[in-house]
Amino acid sequence: MQIQSQIGVGVALVASLLIGDEPVPERNRQPYAGIDWAKVQHVQGTTHAHVNNQERLDRVHRDGLRFLTVTNYYPSAPYWPLREVRAGQFRPQQAHGAMRNGKWIPGPIDWNALITDPEEGWLGEIPEEFRTRPLLKAGERLFPRIPAGILEAPNAEHHGFTDTGAHINSPGSAFASGTFDVKRRYLLEKKGFARGSGRPWRDVYKDMLAGLICPEGGGIVINHPISSKLKQQFVLGMLDFDPRVLGMEIFNHSCVKGRPNASCAENEALWDGILATGRQCFGFFVPDWQHCFEGVWMGRCLLLVDEFDRDACLRAYRNGAFYGALLGDRLRFTKLAVTAKGIEVALDKPARIVILTEKGIVSQDEGRGLGWEFPEPKPVFVRVRVEHESGERLYSQPTMLGPAPKR
């Protein structure tokens, strides 16, 4: 995990709209253009799943996940590569720095040395039952068995911004933030250390983008915006910050749990409101955390790739070459084609197909395919939702039909 020590406030940041000397392309407004549906692979991934023990790793693999970008926190440090992660490895020392009383403390940080320092430490203030010797230590490998046939990329869930309550993922970024002391047993927060990022979101976004391991792939995803109480205008500001802010979660299983009146896609209204402004905003479908490994595990992104390769999957996220699903294994798109004249949809099984624009539902039918001819003037965007009797739902990424608004 050496790369984490290189990612922090002290790195030389790329300009927000540059990759090296090349300008960053705007978010892809036609995400399915050029896809050969007869040959493309549908690889199950998700940008937001907490996997912190062998049982959960085995479960997500058994449920079909093949591209892993796990998203743990406290600290928000990538569990990557999985084979090197040890239980509690960020407790004795963390490679990345942290904010303390509004100032940056560069990594590595040796927590044992800091807490037990005879002049500046606070060992005597820690509850007696936690004053073990050594004070903090790492355990055995967290994942002794790595399932065959998986790909990995770094990711983490970042939080604790000074100017928003948002939670943010960055699939493909090795950036790390925050500290381990989630239960406040070692008084890090009392001693001025931020539990999370401790900085404004724009500053942290720059570091996330600087930490991308594939320049043409991955990016930033806004987590559960409804649960985080993010307003549309605020999300627009995040999308306008950089084209590598890819979009937001549309379905989050943890947010649906315990809310009997919540639809399985409770964030579609906000999504359509943002798309109606002419901005591309990719939609993500995730399990998240609390209950997701009990019973039915829902929330997938089906990545459309020509080869089973890590960077190909990250590029699919960047380009919007994926679609959302609740279950991931009951139904597939076999065609999503948008031309100047209209849209054509095909499935591998009969289901209810719904075509939506900023005006709402504009066409729907039962079957294995549906086409719709665009009226004049053309809609701002078009997207597809599919509902199957098995409980599966599919969600296409939007195709934008007009010019992008000026940023």
In terms of topology, how is this protein built?
Elements: E1 18-19, E2 22-23, E3 41-45, H1 54-62, E4 67-68, E5 93-94, E6 98-100, E7 103-105, E8 109-110, H2 111-116, E9 151-152, E10 157-158, E11 168-169, H3 201-210, E12 220-222, H4 232-241, E13 245-252, H5 253-256, H6 268-275, E14 282-286, E15 300-305, H7 310-319, E16 322-325, E17 333-338, E18 342-357, E19 360-373, E20 381-387, E21 393-395, E22 399-400
| Proportion of residues in extended strands | 15-25%
**Residue-averaged pLDDT:** 92
- Give the C-level CATH assignment of the largest domain: Alpha Beta
Along the chain, the helix and strand elements come as: EEEHEEEEEHEEEHEHEHHEEHEEEEEEE
Structural class: alpha+beta
Give helix % range. Answer: 10-25%
Nearest-angstrom radius of gyration? 22 Å
What about the largest sheet? 9 strands, antiparallel
What would you note in describing this structure?
By secondary structure, this protein is α+β, with helices and mostly antiparallel strands. The protein has two domains: 36-329, Alpha-Beta Barrel (TIM Barrel), CATH 3.20.20.140; 334-407, Immunoglobulin-like. 14% of the residues lie in helices and 25% in strands. It has helices at residues 54-62, 111-116, 201-210, 232-241, 253-256, 268-275, 310-319; strands at 18-19, 22-23, 41-45, 67-68, 93-94, 98-100, 103-105, 109-110, 151-152, 157-158, 168-169, 220-222, 245-252, 282-286, 300-305, 322-325, 333-338, 342-357, 360-373, 381-387, 393-395, 399-400. Strands 3, 15, 16, 17, 18, 19, 20, 21 and 22 form a nine-stranded antiparallel beta sheet that branches. The protein has a five-stranded mixed beta sheet with strand order 10-11-12-13-14. The chain has a two-stranded antiparallel sheet with strand order 1-2. Helix 4 links the parallel strand 12 (220-222) and strand 13. The longest helix is centred in the middle third of the chain and has 10 residues, at 201-210. The chain is elongated. The two termini are 37 Å apart. The relative contact order is 0.16. The model is unreliable at 1-16 (pLDDT under 50).
